[in-house]
Amino acid sequence: MIAPSVLAADFANLQRDVEMINSSQADWFHIDIMDGHFVPNISFGLPVCEAIHRHAKKPLDVHLMIEKPELYLEAFKKAGAANISVHFEACKHLHRTLQEIKNLGCLAGVVLNPATPVSVLEDILPYCEMVLLMSVNPGFGGQQFIEFTYDKVRKLKRMITERNLNTLIEIDGGVNYETGQKLVEAGADVLVAGSYVFNAKNPVQTIEELKTLYL
Ligand code: DX5
Ligand code: ZN
Question: Which residues bind substrate (predicted)?
């Protein structure tokens, strides 16, 4: 699956860019929420998420880069989130938070920063419907892909298979055709792509090319 990141869209032409994703082969809208505390950047919040939802014809994949994400789960559900992913590093009571996300009827995801090993998921994995591995340090688009991510994907894939789970593996940061190809080989199910899609001459075609990685 491909989830273009709206963070790289033109916010003054958001409806145009949402329609571009609607008309493409993209599967989800990736929505990056940053609070200026958990990450050193502020993106946008609930009203923008809700506005995107009004025009989006595909599910919203909400990535919360915020402290105390448990306080905002219901609000993001109301703003149209289909998937809600929270950072392992931001959750004191991750098991409870994942259950709250599921109780809202959303797909529950856990995000790991590049420096957080997949081994921390050993016990909680059966409660994660998706694991999002950051392949850059969260906070900004357009950063360089961190190479050891491939190993993390392989390790995580092994953990999922060993436990007979169907947890999705999503990768976020520095994804392009080349890194995407290796990620899919390693076991990635969902690729997030921001600058690679939106800086392309033909974003719809670029999404189409990324989709061929799954053929
Ligand atoms: C980074 C965000 C990403 C970002 C990816 O903190 O979580 O979703 O938009 O951007 P690219 O694809 O440009 O690395
Ligand atoms: Zn993201």
Answer: 5, 63, 139-142, 172-174, 194-195
Question: Ligand 2 centre from 61 Cα, in Å?
Answer: 9
Q: Give residue 126's pLDDT.
A: 98
* pLDDT score, position 136: 98
Atom of ligand 1 nearest to the CA of 135: 14
Q: How many CA atoms lie within 13 A of 6 on its CB side?
A: 35
Q: Is the CB of 8 under 6 A from ligand 1?
A: yes
Its ipTM equals: 0.99
d(CA 172, CA 72): 22
pLDDT computed for residue 28 by the predictor: 98
180 Cβ below 6 A of ligand 1: no
Question: Where in the sequence numbering do the catalytic residues fall?
Answer: 32, 172
Strand order in the sheet with 190-193: 2-4, 190-193, 168-172, 130-134, 107-112, 81-87, 60-65, 29-34
- Give per-residue pLDDT as tens, 46-86: 999 999 999 999 999 999 999 999 999 999 999 999 999 99
Write the residue with the smallest CA distance to atom 4 of ligand 1. Answer: 141
By DSSP bridging, strand 190-193 and strand 130-134 are unpaired
| 93 among annotated binding-site residues | no
Report the CATH superfamily, name and number, of domain 2-214.
Answer: Aldolase class I (3.20.20.70)
Whether 113 is in the pocket of ligand 1, judged by its Cβ within 6 Å, is no
**Distance, CA 130 to ligand 2 centroid (Å)?**
13
Domain boundaries in the chain?
2-214
